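Milestone 3.1: sequence recovery, worked example.
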Protein backbone atom coordinates (compact mmCIF):
# COMPACT_ATOMS: atom_id res chain seq x y z
CA UNK A 1 0.00 0.00 0.00
CA UNK A 2 1.17 3.55 -0.79
CA UNK A 3 0.02 6.85 0.73
CA UNK A 4 0.90 10.29 -0.59
CA UNK A 5 1.12 12.98 2.09
CA UNK A 6 1.03 16.68 1.17
CA UNK A 7 2.66 19.15 3.57
CA UNK A 8 5.82 19.59 5.58
CA UNK A 9 5.06 20.91 9.08
CA UNK A 10 4.77 19.38 12.54
CA UNK A 11 1.15 18.45 11.85
CA UNK A 12 2.19 16.53 8.72
CA UNK A 13 5.03 14.88 10.64
CA UNK A 14 2.39 13.66 13.14
CA UNK A 15 0.10 12.51 10.29
CA UNK A 16 3.00 10.59 8.66
CA UNK A 17 3.83 9.01 12.02
CA UNK A 18 0.21 7.90 12.58
CA UNK A 19 -0.08 6.51 9.02
CA UNK A 20 3.21 4.62 9.43
CA UNK A 21 1.87 2.91 12.59
CA UNK A 22 -0.87 1.26 10.52
CA UNK A 23 -1.06 -2.54 10.40
CA UNK A 24 -1.26 -2.13 6.60
CA UNK A 25 2.38 -1.00 6.62
CA UNK A 26 1.97 1.71 3.97
CA UNK A 27 4.92 3.17 2.13
CA UNK A 28 4.77 6.90 2.82
CA UNK A 29 5.49 9.31 -0.03
CA UNK A 30 5.49 13.03 0.70
CA UNK A 31 5.29 16.25 -1.28
CA UNK A 32 6.84 18.99 0.83
CA UNK A 33 7.80 22.64 0.47
CA UNK A 34 10.84 22.14 2.73
CA UNK A 35 12.91 19.14 3.85
CA UNK A 36 11.29 18.11 7.12
CA UNK A 37 13.73 15.61 8.71
CA UNK A 38 10.98 13.77 10.59
CA UNK A 39 8.90 13.17 7.46
CA UNK A 40 11.97 12.28 5.39
CA UNK A 41 12.90 9.62 7.95
CA UNK A 42 9.40 8.12 7.82
CA UNK A 43 9.40 8.10 4.00
CA UNK A 44 12.77 6.36 3.96
CA UNK A 45 12.01 3.84 6.72
CA UNK A 46 8.72 2.77 5.10
CA UNK A 47 10.26 2.42 1.63
CA UNK A 48 8.62 5.57 0.26
CA UNK A 49 10.12 8.72 -1.22
CA UNK A 50 9.80 12.48 -0.90
CA UNK A 51 9.55 15.34 -3.39
CA UNK A 52 10.25 19.03 -2.83
CA UNK A 53 8.22 21.67 -4.64
CA UNK A 54 5.25 23.99 -4.59
CA UNK A 55 2.58 22.12 -2.66
CA UNK A 56 -0.08 24.62 -3.71
CA UNK A 57 0.49 23.88 -7.41
CA UNK A 58 -2.21 21.34 -8.40
CA UNK A 59 -0.42 20.39 -11.62
CA UNK A 60 2.89 19.69 -9.87
CA UNK A 61 1.22 17.62 -7.12
CA UNK A 62 -0.87 15.76 -9.67
CA UNK A 63 2.24 14.82 -11.66
CA UNK A 64 3.86 13.43 -8.50
CA UNK A 65 0.60 11.63 -7.72
CA UNK A 66 0.54 10.03 -11.17
CA UNK A 67 4.17 8.98 -10.79
CA UNK A 68 3.68 7.46 -7.31
CA UNK A 69 0.17 6.10 -7.96
CA UNK A 70 -0.81 5.93 -4.27
CA UNK A 71 -3.90 4.22 -2.84
CA UNK A 72 -4.89 7.62 -1.47
CA UNK A 73 -3.53 11.07 -0.64
CA UNK A 74 -3.73 12.88 2.69
CA UNK A 75 -3.61 16.67 2.46
CA UNK A 76 -2.34 18.28 5.67
CA UNK A 77 -2.47 22.09 5.25
CA UNK A 78 -5.27 24.34 4.02
CA UNK A 79 -3.55 26.24 1.18
CA UNK A 80 -3.21 23.21 -1.16
CA UNK A 81 -6.95 22.63 -0.65
CA UNK A 82 -7.73 26.29 -1.44
CA UNK A 83 -5.73 25.91 -4.67
CA UNK A 84 -7.57 22.78 -5.83
CA UNK A 85 -4.92 20.12 -5.11
CA UNK A 86 -7.56 17.58 -3.92
CA UNK A 87 -9.59 18.20 -7.09
CA UNK A 88 -6.53 17.70 -9.32
CA UNK A 89 -5.57 14.46 -7.57
CA UNK A 90 -9.11 13.09 -7.65
CA UNK A 91 -9.43 13.94 -11.34
CA UNK A 92 -6.31 11.78 -11.79
CA UNK A 93 -8.08 8.92 -9.98
CA UNK A 94 -6.32 9.39 -6.61
CA UNK A 95 -8.84 9.61 -3.77
CA UNK A 96 -8.08 12.25 -1.14
CA UNK A 97 -8.52 12.83 2.55
CA UNK A 98 -8.66 16.60 2.21
CA UNK A 99 -11.40 19.00 1.22
CA UNK A 100 -12.12 19.81 -2.41
CA UNK A 101 -11.51 23.45 -3.35
CA UNK A 102 -15.18 24.46 -3.08
CA UNK A 103 -15.66 22.76 0.28
CA UNK A 104 -12.48 24.28 1.72
CA UNK A 105 -14.24 27.64 1.35
CA UNK A 106 -15.45 26.93 4.89
CA UNK A 107 -11.94 27.87 6.06
CA UNK A 108 -10.72 30.10 3.25
CA UNK A 109 -13.55 32.65 3.46
CA UNK A 110 -14.68 33.70 6.90
CA UNK A 111 -17.54 35.66 5.33
CA UNK A 112 -18.73 32.57 3.43
CA UNK A 113 -18.60 30.59 6.68
CA UNK A 114 -20.71 33.19 8.52
CA UNK A 115 -23.22 33.47 5.65
CA UNK A 116 -23.57 29.70 5.56
CA UNK A 117 -24.21 29.52 9.31
CA UNK A 118 -26.87 32.25 9.04
CA UNK A 119 -28.51 30.78 5.95
CA UNK A 120 -28.94 27.40 7.68
CA UNK A 121 -29.55 29.01 11.09
CA UNK A 122 -26.82 26.92 12.70
CA UNK A 123 -26.34 27.63 16.41
CA UNK A 124 -23.08 29.22 17.56
CA UNK A 125 -23.12 31.90 14.82
CA UNK A 126 -22.14 35.54 15.31
CA UNK A 127 -23.44 38.75 13.79
CA UNK A 128 -21.04 40.05 11.17
CA UNK A 129 -20.45 42.45 8.29
CA UNK A 130 -18.12 41.77 5.38
CA UNK A 131 -16.53 44.58 3.35
CA UNK A 132 -14.95 44.55 -0.09
CA UNK A 133 -13.10 47.80 0.48
CA UNK A 134 -11.64 49.73 3.36
CA UNK A 135 -13.76 52.89 2.88
CA UNK A 136 -17.00 51.01 3.52
CA UNK A 137 -15.50 49.29 6.56
CA UNK A 138 -14.41 52.64 7.98
CA UNK A 139 -17.81 54.22 7.34
CA UNK A 140 -19.39 51.36 9.30
CA UNK A 141 -16.86 51.68 12.13
CA UNK A 142 -17.60 55.43 12.37
CA UNK A 143 -21.34 54.88 12.52
CA UNK A 144 -21.50 52.03 14.98
CA UNK A 145 -19.52 52.28 18.22
CA UNK A 146 -19.49 48.61 19.18
CA UNK A 147 -17.12 46.07 20.68
CA UNK A 148 -15.91 44.14 17.65
CA UNK A 149 -13.45 41.63 16.28
CA UNK A 150 -11.76 42.91 13.11
CA UNK A 151 -10.42 40.17 10.85
CA UNK A 152 -9.04 39.59 7.39
CA UNK A 153 -11.98 38.05 5.51
CA UNK A 154 -9.71 35.26 4.23
CA UNK A 155 -7.67 32.71 6.15
CA UNK A 156 -4.41 34.62 6.40
CA UNK A 157 -2.26 32.27 8.45
CA UNK A 158 -3.90 33.37 11.72
CA UNK A 159 -2.61 36.93 11.27
CA UNK A 160 -4.44 40.23 11.53
CA UNK A 161 -7.21 39.49 14.04
CA UNK A 162 -7.83 42.29 16.53
CA UNK A 163 -10.52 42.33 19.18
CA UNK A 164 -11.49 45.82 20.36
CA UNK A 165 -13.76 46.44 23.34
CA UNK A 166 -15.75 49.66 23.04
CA UNK A 167 -17.63 50.21 26.23
CA UNK A 168 -16.37 53.48 27.76
CA UNK A 169 -18.19 56.35 26.02
CA UNK A 170 -15.36 58.79 26.88
CA UNK A 171 -12.87 56.68 24.87
CA UNK A 172 -15.11 56.31 21.84
CA UNK A 173 -13.09 58.57 19.52
CA UNK A 174 -9.81 56.84 20.41
CA UNK A 175 -11.34 53.40 19.96
CA UNK A 176 -12.75 54.38 16.58
CA UNK A 177 -9.30 55.54 15.49
CA UNK A 178 -7.75 52.21 16.56
CA UNK A 179 -10.42 50.33 14.60
CA UNK A 180 -9.93 52.47 11.50
CA UNK A 181 -6.17 52.02 11.63
CA UNK A 182 -6.52 48.28 11.98
CA UNK A 183 -9.07 48.03 9.15
CA UNK A 184 -6.50 49.80 6.90
CA UNK A 185 -3.76 47.43 8.07
CA UNK A 186 -5.89 44.39 7.24
CA UNK A 187 -6.63 45.76 3.78
CA UNK A 188 -3.13 47.00 2.94
CA UNK A 189 -1.05 44.36 4.70
CA UNK A 190 -2.77 41.12 5.69
CA UNK A 191 -5.03 40.79 2.63
CA UNK A 192 -2.41 42.07 0.17
CA UNK A 193 -1.02 38.64 -0.80
CA UNK A 194 -4.50 37.35 -1.67
CA UNK A 195 -6.39 38.22 -4.84
CA UNK A 196 -8.56 35.10 -4.78
CA UNK A 197 -11.37 36.55 -2.66
CA UNK A 198 -13.66 39.56 -3.00
CA UNK A 199 -14.44 40.17 0.69
CA UNK A 200 -11.49 41.83 2.37
CA UNK A 201 -12.47 42.85 5.91
CA UNK A 202 -14.75 41.10 8.36
CA UNK A 203 -16.26 42.76 11.40
CA UNK A 204 -17.84 40.44 13.95
CA UNK A 205 -19.49 41.07 17.27
CA UNK A 206 -17.03 40.59 20.11
CA UNK A 207 -17.45 37.59 22.36
CA UNK A 208 -15.42 36.35 25.32
CA UNK A 209 -14.74 32.95 26.75
CA UNK A 210 -12.32 30.03 26.71
CA UNK A 211 -11.41 28.77 23.26
CA UNK A 212 -11.11 25.14 22.18
CA UNK A 213 -10.69 23.17 18.97
CA UNK A 214 -12.92 20.29 17.93
CA UNK A 215 -11.18 18.24 15.21
CA UNK A 216 -13.29 15.71 13.32
CA UNK A 217 -13.00 13.24 10.49
CA UNK A 218 -15.90 13.32 8.09
CA UNK A 219 -17.00 11.44 4.98
CA UNK A 220 -19.80 13.96 4.42
CA UNK A 221 -22.35 11.66 6.08
CA UNK A 222 -20.77 10.93 9.47
CA UNK A 223 -18.74 13.25 11.68
CA UNK A 224 -16.32 11.47 14.03
CA UNK A 225 -14.83 13.76 16.67
CA UNK A 226 -11.40 13.50 18.22
CA UNK A 227 -10.61 14.61 21.78
CA UNK A 228 -10.99 18.35 22.37
CA UNK A 229 -7.79 20.38 22.33
CA UNK A 230 -7.04 23.91 23.43
CA UNK A 231 -4.49 25.95 21.52
CA UNK A 232 -2.68 28.97 22.99
CA UNK A 233 -2.21 31.63 20.36
CA UNK A 234 -0.34 34.43 22.11
CA UNK A 235 3.42 34.42 21.71
CA UNK A 236 4.28 34.92 25.36
CA UNK A 237 3.48 33.61 28.85
CA UNK A 238 0.09 34.37 30.40
CA UNK A 239 -1.53 35.07 27.01
CA UNK A 240 0.53 38.17 26.34
CA UNK A 241 2.03 39.26 23.01
CA UNK A 242 1.12 38.97 19.35
CA UNK A 243 -1.01 36.16 17.97
CA UNK A 244 0.89 33.25 16.49
CA UNK A 245 -0.21 30.12 14.66
CA UNK A 246 -0.30 28.53 18.13
CA UNK A 247 2.45 28.22 20.74
CA UNK A 248 1.17 25.03 22.30
CA UNK A 249 -1.91 23.05 23.10
CA UNK A 250 -3.44 20.77 25.70
CA UNK A 251 -5.93 17.94 25.75
CA UNK A 252 -7.40 16.15 28.76
CA UNK A 253 -7.71 12.45 29.43
CA UNK A 254 -10.71 11.21 27.44
CA UNK A 255 -12.51 13.51 25.02
CA UNK A 256 -13.13 16.58 27.19
CA UNK A 257 -11.08 19.51 28.43
CA UNK A 258 -11.15 20.42 32.14
CA UNK A 259 -13.29 23.46 31.30
CA UNK A 260 -15.65 21.96 28.70
CA UNK A 261 -18.46 19.67 29.80
CA UNK A 262 -19.98 16.65 28.05
CA UNK A 263 -23.13 18.45 26.84
CA UNK A 264 -21.00 21.31 25.46
CA UNK A 265 -18.85 18.78 23.60
CA UNK A 266 -21.97 17.14 22.11
CA UNK A 267 -23.42 20.51 21.07
CA UNK A 268 -20.12 21.42 19.42
CA UNK A 269 -20.19 18.17 17.41
CA UNK A 270 -23.77 18.95 16.32
CA UNK A 271 -22.65 22.35 15.02
CA UNK A 272 -19.91 20.72 12.92
CA UNK A 273 -22.41 18.11 11.65
CA UNK A 274 -24.85 20.86 10.62
CA UNK A 275 -22.10 22.68 8.73
CA UNK A 276 -21.03 19.51 6.89
CA UNK A 277 -24.66 18.93 5.83
CA UNK A 278 -25.04 22.58 4.80
CA UNK A 279 -21.88 22.32 2.66
CA UNK A 280 -23.31 19.33 0.82
CA UNK A 281 -26.54 21.24 0.15
CA UNK A 282 -24.60 24.26 -1.15
CA UNK A 283 -22.15 22.43 -3.40
CA UNK A 284 -23.78 19.07 -4.10
CA UNK A 285 -20.70 17.14 -3.00
CA UNK A 286 -19.67 15.38 0.18
CA UNK A 287 -16.79 16.52 2.34
CA UNK A 288 -14.04 13.91 2.62
CA UNK A 289 -11.42 14.86 5.12
CA UNK A 290 -10.81 16.62 8.40
CA UNK A 291 -12.95 19.53 9.54
CA UNK A 292 -12.28 21.42 12.77
CA UNK A 293 -14.34 23.94 14.64
CA UNK A 294 -12.19 26.54 16.35
CA UNK A 295 -14.68 27.34 19.06
CA UNK A 296 -15.33 29.46 22.10
CA UNK A 297 -17.67 28.92 25.02
CA UNK A 298 -19.56 32.23 25.08
CA UNK A 299 -22.23 33.82 27.22
CA UNK A 300 -24.25 34.45 24.03
CA UNK A 301 -24.54 30.87 22.75
CA UNK A 302 -22.46 28.47 24.81
CA UNK A 303 -20.48 26.63 22.07
CA UNK A 304 -19.76 29.24 19.38
CA UNK A 305 -17.80 29.10 16.13
CA UNK A 306 -14.89 31.50 15.82
CA UNK A 307 -13.46 29.89 12.68
CA UNK A 308 -13.47 26.61 10.79
CA UNK A 309 -10.37 24.73 9.64
CA UNK A 310 -10.61 22.35 6.68
CA UNK A 311 -7.80 20.31 8.31
CA UNK A 312 -6.26 19.45 11.67
CA UNK A 313 -5.06 22.45 13.67
CA UNK A 314 -1.34 22.89 14.14
CA UNK A 315 -0.34 22.24 16.93
CA UNK A 316 -3.75 20.76 17.87
CA UNK A 317 -3.33 17.78 15.51
CA UNK A 318 -0.08 16.92 17.26
CA UNK A 319 -1.98 16.38 20.54
CA UNK A 320 -4.30 13.73 19.16
CA UNK A 321 -2.47 11.89 16.36
CA UNK A 322 0.24 10.31 18.57
CA UNK A 323 -2.40 8.83 20.92
CA UNK A 324 -4.75 7.68 18.16
CA UNK A 325 -5.28 3.93 18.56
CA UNK A 326 -7.65 3.51 15.61
CA UNK A 327 -5.68 2.81 12.46
CA UNK A 328 -5.34 6.06 10.47
CA UNK A 329 -5.14 4.18 7.15
CA UNK A 330 -8.47 2.50 7.97
CA UNK A 331 -10.03 5.82 9.01
CA UNK A 332 -8.80 7.34 5.72
CA UNK A 333 -10.24 4.49 3.68
CA UNK A 334 -13.55 4.85 5.52
CA UNK A 335 -13.56 8.60 4.79
CA UNK A 336 -12.99 7.95 1.09
CA UNK A 337 -15.56 5.13 0.78
CA UNK A 338 -18.10 7.01 2.98
CA UNK A 339 -18.12 4.19 5.54
CA UNK A 340 -17.08 6.27 8.52
CA UNK A 341 -20.22 5.20 10.40
CA UNK A 342 -18.52 1.81 10.80
CA UNK A 343 -15.47 3.29 12.56
CA UNK A 344 -14.93 4.14 16.20
CA UNK A 345 -12.25 6.58 17.26
CA UNK A 346 -10.16 5.18 20.08
CA UNK A 347 -7.34 7.03 21.77
CA UNK A 348 -4.97 6.24 24.61
CA UNK A 349 -6.41 7.35 27.94
CA UNK A 350 -3.87 10.12 28.47
CA UNK A 351 -3.69 13.87 28.84
CA UNK A 352 -1.38 15.49 26.28
CA UNK A 353 0.60 18.71 25.96
CA UNK A 354 2.39 20.07 22.90
CA UNK A 355 4.67 23.12 23.06
CA UNK A 356 6.18 24.89 20.10
CA UNK A 357 9.73 26.20 20.19
CA UNK A 358 10.27 29.18 17.90
CA UNK A 359 13.24 31.38 17.02
CA UNK A 360 13.20 34.95 18.39
CA UNK A 361 11.57 37.24 15.86
CA UNK A 362 8.59 34.94 15.27
CA UNK A 363 5.80 35.87 14.57
CA UNK A 364 6.31 39.52 13.55
CA UNK A 365 9.88 39.40 12.20
CA UNK A 366 10.11 36.06 10.47
CA UNK A 367 12.96 37.45 8.39
CA UNK A 368 15.04 37.57 11.59
CA UNK A 369 13.79 34.20 12.84
CA UNK A 370 14.86 32.50 9.61
CA UNK A 371 18.15 30.92 8.63
CA UNK A 372 19.61 29.83 11.98
CA UNK A 373 21.31 26.44 12.37
CA UNK A 374 19.49 24.47 15.02
CA UNK A 375 20.28 21.24 16.91
CA UNK A 376 17.70 18.90 18.40
CA UNK A 377 18.82 16.14 20.77
CA UNK A 378 16.00 13.71 20.01
CA UNK A 379 17.44 10.92 22.12
CA UNK A 380 17.62 13.12 25.26
CA UNK A 381 14.01 14.22 24.62
CA UNK A 382 12.85 10.63 24.23
CA UNK A 383 14.65 9.69 27.47
CA UNK A 384 12.41 12.25 29.21
CA UNK A 385 9.38 10.43 27.78
CA UNK A 386 8.54 13.07 25.15
CA UNK A 387 8.67 13.22 21.35
CA UNK A 388 9.74 15.78 18.76
CA UNK A 389 7.70 16.78 15.72
CA UNK A 390 9.62 18.93 13.26
CA UNK A 391 7.97 22.06 11.87
CA UNK A 392 9.44 25.09 10.16
CA UNK A 393 12.95 23.73 9.54
CA UNK A 394 14.83 22.64 6.46
CA UNK A 395 17.61 20.10 6.05
CA UNK A 396 20.27 21.92 4.04
CA UNK A 397 23.58 20.15 3.29
CA UNK A 398 23.10 17.97 6.35
CA UNK A 399 22.39 20.96 8.62
CA UNK A 400 19.03 21.80 10.15
CA UNK A 401 18.06 25.43 9.48
CA UNK A 402 15.14 27.42 10.93
CA UNK A 403 12.45 28.53 8.51
CA UNK A 404 11.16 31.55 10.45
CA UNK A 405 8.15 29.99 12.15
CA UNK A 406 7.69 27.37 14.90
CA UNK A 407 10.74 25.15 14.47
CA UNK A 408 9.75 22.11 16.50
CA UNK A 409 6.84 20.96 18.62
CA UNK A 410 7.46 18.76 21.65
CA UNK A 411 4.74 16.32 22.64
CA UNK A 412 4.26 14.51 25.94
CA UNK A 413 1.42 12.53 27.45
CA UNK A 414 0.74 11.67 31.09
CA UNK A 415 -2.06 11.10 33.59
CA UNK A 416 -2.68 14.86 33.90
CA UNK A 417 -2.15 17.93 31.74
CA UNK A 418 0.12 19.46 34.41
CA UNK A 419 2.37 16.37 34.43
CA UNK A 420 2.60 16.29 30.63
CA UNK A 421 3.46 20.00 30.66
CA UNK A 422 6.32 19.44 33.09
CA UNK A 423 7.73 16.62 30.94
CA UNK A 424 7.80 18.94 27.92
CA UNK A 425 9.45 21.72 29.95
CA UNK A 426 12.33 19.38 30.82
CA UNK A 427 13.00 18.83 27.11
CA UNK A 428 13.22 22.42 25.94
CA UNK A 429 16.93 22.68 26.74
CA UNK A 430 17.65 19.95 24.20
CA UNK A 431 16.71 22.28 21.34
CA UNK A 432 19.15 25.11 20.66
CA UNK A 433 20.38 27.39 17.92
CA UNK A 434 24.02 26.73 17.09
CA UNK A 435 24.74 30.38 16.24
CA UNK A 436 23.57 31.64 19.64
CA UNK A 437 20.26 33.00 18.30
CA UNK A 438 17.50 32.88 20.92
CA UNK A 439 14.61 30.44 20.97
CA UNK A 440 11.45 30.86 23.01
CA UNK A 441 8.51 28.79 24.16
CA UNK A 442 5.69 29.04 26.71
CA UNK A 443 6.27 27.21 29.98
CA UNK A 444 2.81 28.22 31.26
CA UNK A 445 0.86 26.09 28.75
CA UNK A 446 -0.66 23.22 30.72
CA UNK A 447 0.21 24.81 34.09
CA UNK A 448 -2.38 24.74 36.85
CA UNK A 449 -2.42 28.56 36.92
CA UNK A 450 -3.53 28.79 33.31
CA UNK A 451 -5.93 25.87 33.63
CA UNK A 452 -7.64 27.51 36.59
CA UNK A 453 -7.93 30.76 34.70
CA UNK A 454 -9.71 28.93 31.83
CA UNK A 455 -11.95 27.05 34.27
CA UNK A 456 -13.03 30.23 36.06
CA UNK A 457 -13.80 31.97 32.75
CA UNK A 458 -15.77 28.94 31.54
CA UNK A 459 -17.84 28.93 34.72
CA UNK A 460 -18.68 32.62 34.31
CA UNK A 461 -19.89 32.31 30.73
CA UNK A 462 -21.59 28.96 31.45
CA UNK A 463 -23.78 30.59 34.09
CA UNK A 464 -24.86 33.29 31.65
CA UNK A 465 -25.55 31.14 28.59
CA UNK A 466 -27.51 28.65 30.68
CA UNK A 467 -29.56 31.51 32.10
CA UNK A 468 -30.14 32.80 28.57
CA UNK A 469 -31.23 29.33 27.50
CA UNK A 470 -33.70 29.10 30.40
CA UNK A 471 -35.19 32.45 29.33
CA UNK A 472 -35.33 31.55 25.63
CA UNK A 473 -32.86 34.25 24.59
CA UNK A 474 -29.91 32.12 23.52
CA UNK A 475 -27.99 33.79 20.66
CA UNK A 476 -30.15 36.89 20.88
CA UNK A 477 -28.76 40.33 21.57
CA UNK A 478 -31.16 42.76 23.19
CA UNK A 479 -30.64 46.49 23.78
CA UNK A 480 -32.97 48.66 25.79
CA UNK A 481 -33.18 52.28 24.72
CA UNK A 482 -35.25 54.59 26.98
CA UNK A 483 -38.20 55.98 25.07
CA UNK A 484 -37.65 53.50 22.23
CA UNK A 485 -37.87 50.18 24.03
CA UNK A 486 -36.44 46.76 23.31
CA UNK A 487 -34.29 46.19 20.23
CA UNK A 488 -33.73 42.53 19.34
CA UNK A 489 -30.83 41.98 16.94
CA UNK A 490 -31.22 38.29 16.34
CA UNK A 491 -34.06 35.85 16.32
N1 LIG B 1 -3.53 26.42 15.70
C1 LIG B 1 -4.24 27.22 14.81
C2 LIG B 1 -4.28 26.76 13.41
O1 LIG B 1 -4.02 25.62 13.14
O2 LIG B 1 -4.60 27.54 12.54
Amino acid sequence: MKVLLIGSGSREHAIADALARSVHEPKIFAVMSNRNPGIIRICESTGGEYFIGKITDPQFVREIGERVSPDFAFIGPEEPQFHGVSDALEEAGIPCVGAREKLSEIERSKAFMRRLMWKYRIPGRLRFKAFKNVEEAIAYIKEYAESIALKPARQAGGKGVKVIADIQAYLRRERTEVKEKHAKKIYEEHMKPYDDIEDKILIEEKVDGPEYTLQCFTDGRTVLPLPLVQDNKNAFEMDIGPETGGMGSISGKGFLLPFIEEDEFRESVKIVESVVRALEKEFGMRYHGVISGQMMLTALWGPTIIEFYSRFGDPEGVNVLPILKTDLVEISEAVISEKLHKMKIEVEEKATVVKAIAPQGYPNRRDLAKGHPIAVDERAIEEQGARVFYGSVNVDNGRLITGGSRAVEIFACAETIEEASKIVDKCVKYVRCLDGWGLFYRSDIGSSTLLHRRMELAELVRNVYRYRRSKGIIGIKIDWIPGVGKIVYES
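Residues 158, 231, 245-246, 309, 313-314, 316 surround glycine (CB under 6 Å). The first strand starts at residue 2 and ends at 6.
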